[in-house]
Design brief:
The structure holds 2 protein chains of 2 kinds. Chain A is mainly alpha-helical. Chain A has helices at residues 2-56, 59-68. By secondary structure, chain B is α+β, with helices and mostly antiparallel strands. The chains are: A mainly alpha, B alpha+beta.
Chain lengths: 83, 562
Amino acid sequence: MRKQLYFGVSLIITVFVYLWQQNMSMRLAYKVSFLQSDYDKLNSENDILRLKINSNLALEKMDEIAKKNNLLRPDEKHIIYID
Amino acid sequence: MRNKKNRINRKTILAFVMLLVFFLLFAKLIYLQVFLHEKINRTVGKMVNHEAVEVPKRGDILDAKGNILATSIKSYTCFIDAKMIEDFEALKKVLYENGIKIKEKKIYDFKNMSYIPIAFNVDSFIVEKIKKTKLKGVGFEAKYIRRYPQGRLLAHILGITGCDGSGLEGIEKICNTSLSGEIIKTKIIRDGRGQIIRNQFLNTQEIHGCNVELTIDRNIQFIVEQELRKAFEIYKATKAICIVQDPKTGKILAMVSIPDFDCSDKIKNIKSLRNSAISDLYEPGSTFKIITMAAALEEGKVKLSDLLYLESGKFRIAGHTINDDHKIKGSVTLCRAFEMSSNIGMVKIAQRLGTDLFYDYIRKFGFYSLTGIDLPGEAKGLLMDVKRWNVLTLPNISFGQGIGVSALQIINAFSSLANDGVLLRPFVVQKIIKYNSEKEIFEKKEIRRVVSKGTACIMKKMLKNAVDLGTGKSAKIHGYTVGGKTGTAQKIDHSTKTYSTKYYTASFCGMVPAMNPRFVALVIIDEPKGSSYYASSVASPVFAKISKRIVEYLCIEKDDIK
């Protein structure tokens, strides 16, 4: 009788562990999917922001802004080099 | 007793029926599990399992300082699935609020279609906003598009990509394999609600294309482009070219050809795609005299102390007259003849050298062969086979006529003298950087020694004198020694098939500082219009302006204290 009881309990535990593992793997798969899409989204946003930084710092654009603000390239004698 | 028997019978029948039901269910189960197993598995697999194609991001192109010159960003095409739309008015309103207009007629015309594209290049921020509304019938398709944040800068070097994202010109074409990355397929599962379940995390960086780092410095490129564009407009030239090279390594620091184009815009004129600096040929004129002089000095056919009689500016060979722009009476030294850019002097030097030796040196300096630059469309040049040379070929070529060269070949020849007589392969790609920061580095590559160090040193002094005392005075910059040579070449008039007296190519190739050059620059203005067409008044001043700004930018120490 006791043997049967042990057998029954171990069977139930095995089934329970199996089901728990299946469930967890499913939950983790969902989590991986969400993380993947978040990661892709952040990467894509990062790319766009880097592009914006580089576009804003484009020399042609900066030169135009400088001209609009009446800025001139300094003459050689106006430059002081600091070591 | 009878009742009891009836009850037993009923119980037996009930048990039998139940057993039969279970048996039937069991039989069905066996049938499904054993006989239909494969079919069902396949059907469910089709519904649940999907293959996702991961499109890699094309690698970035960076300048020598790591600034982005070309990059790819994810962009979306918004489409409508007409069959899925539940609330058209709500959908229309949401899309309109995000700057997307739908034409009702279009939807009505294609009401049986599941894919009606309505907007292209939609931002990911807008996509997220629309997705949050959870409206049915609208979808987004992602793809990478190429962007060039620097606008027109470096257009010819960067090149263009096709609508499929592959490189068609410039670095985009040459480095296409490295930039492209690899398309991979991953398995995904969709649950009942259509949500994606992944069985592994995919590091997309691994499949993206490699970044390519160029030798070009964005700031030097900008300086060159700005000054050259000014000259191009002032002289109403048909073409303007400038290349700046580091003579010690062969690295191209800047390369500009005008007319140019904007990589991000639609290409209206296909001709503007041509990178004139490497693809177009021209007759170099007097800048080619360095080849004649260096070859004669190297072979010991002339000495610095030799005197040349310059025939008072007119020299007849085989019924043809060769003229000098600066008519010099009597004899002058070798250096003076070079400084004053005497055609007659060069003819006499080339005659001492002889046809075969002269031809060998032309080839040794890299003319009539590809320099090996890592850009597409390089021209080899034009040079008549030495066996077919006539009595006028040698004299003509000695002062840069009757030979077709590319701008890159000329600057590379000058650089070989600046590099103590060693010819290097010019290059624009210095690194290919993989996702894990692993780098493939391209080092300088020696082609051959062209002349000895001593000859190269004499040539540098002669080039310095040509700027200090000769035709290149306008190329001087305050505080620095400059060595260089002007070149004013007549162009062929195709209608008369003779040299034109109207169209010229003005060029100047020089190095700064003269004796230990940090950079070599070549300026070519094709068909300048205006009061003067001479290189000394058209090309040399542009060289001076460019060089002045470059020495300031590179913080090159002043070497001319006078």
